[in-house]
Amino acid sequence: MADFADRWGFAQDKFWLRGERPAETVEWNEELLRWEVFGYAEVNEALSNNDAYSADSGKLFGLDEETLKYFDGDLAQMTGPEHANIRKQVSHAFSPRFIEHLESRVLELSNHHADKVANMGRFNLLSDFVDEVAGIVFSELLGIPADDRTMFKVVDQNMDQQAQMTLVDQGSEDGYFEKLTKPLEPLREMLGKHVDAKTKDPKDDLISLLSQVKKLDGTPMTRDQIINFIIGILGAGHLATPLLCANTMLCLESFPEQYELVKADHSLIPGMLEESMRFLTPGAASYRATIQDVELGGKKIAKDQLLRVFLGAANRDPRQFTNPDDFDITRAPNPHLGFGRGAHYCVGGQMVRVETRIVFEVLFNRFPKLRVDTDIPPLFFNSPDFTGVRSGGMWVRID
Length: 399
Hints:
Layout: H1 2-8, E1 26-29, E2 34-37, H2 40-48, E3 53-54, H3 65-68, H4 80-90, H5 96-117, E4 122-124, H6 126-142, H7 154-159, H8 176-181, H9 185-200, H10 206-212, H11 223-254, H12 256-264, H13 269-279, E5 285-290, E6 294-296, E7 299-301, E8 306-310, H14 311-314, H15 349-366, E9 371-372, E10 395-397
Parallel strand pairs: 2-8
Antiparallel strand pairs: 1-2, 3-5, 4-10, 5-8, 6-7, 9-10
């Protein structure tokens, strides 16, 4: 498996891509003052047990009010009854009617952009195609002009940093949370204008829905909470689709026998995408905080400890997956953790599945010789919490 990781130039910290296994499923990292969780069962427990673990890991950092305003309302950080309440109301935006519309719209946009690149011979899979499709669809979901989707790219800056959550040097002026929030100001300003407009004159879109959501105390979400919610789901609603598409192409290029299978039978596309999420998990790691004393992987962990849960490593756990380092598009069952697990399971997971499935159906139908242009190395996000090609970072050939 080192051949796969070294061929494409994945960072050394993505050890699971080289078939390496930690000595233990849960380890204490003295340098970074956090617990690191690698095993499938252990990661699943940390993600699923809301009585013992909290997604609001930021609570361990004693953030000031100014910093907290950037996270209040973020679905990924919410916990407890309020999280369930807001998630239930927002789920109406992803109704069967929306999914049906999504399928037709993604098909239309994919064919349109396939027409634009059909005579190029070589094009950038992300910036010329997938980014455009996913960006337009997400803009329409929000109810904002498609041209404003260019502002989504500021989120890429966060994924291109080496920053990771650690209790070392907490509270510093250039810490983890500050690095996450500073690049987002232009995006927040743009979204804020749309929130103001939709609050005054609601339409049939997600921002309008958010402006009408009621918290448990009966009050509406604040302007900052709505903005934070939108930014929080931007990864699932827009960035996840390009990441999964590019990662899948790397897998198909590396395992040509699997590529031949799916090209011959497009009904295997959904299974291909699930296996790509397992084998080359885009969201490589997440964080949790213990809210009581726990025992995990045979280790006793006290309350108020920071955990980094390695979804990518868990998806290669041989205790859960037979031959975990094989890329097998027919793998079934495939209970990967690529979209998370439990109460914080990715709210946009179905949207990502629909978009990526249709994108590949169009690509395979229109370009039977589609392949990675190996003369131009892919460019990856630098964040240790993500594994994937950044925008503009993958070229493909169709001639």
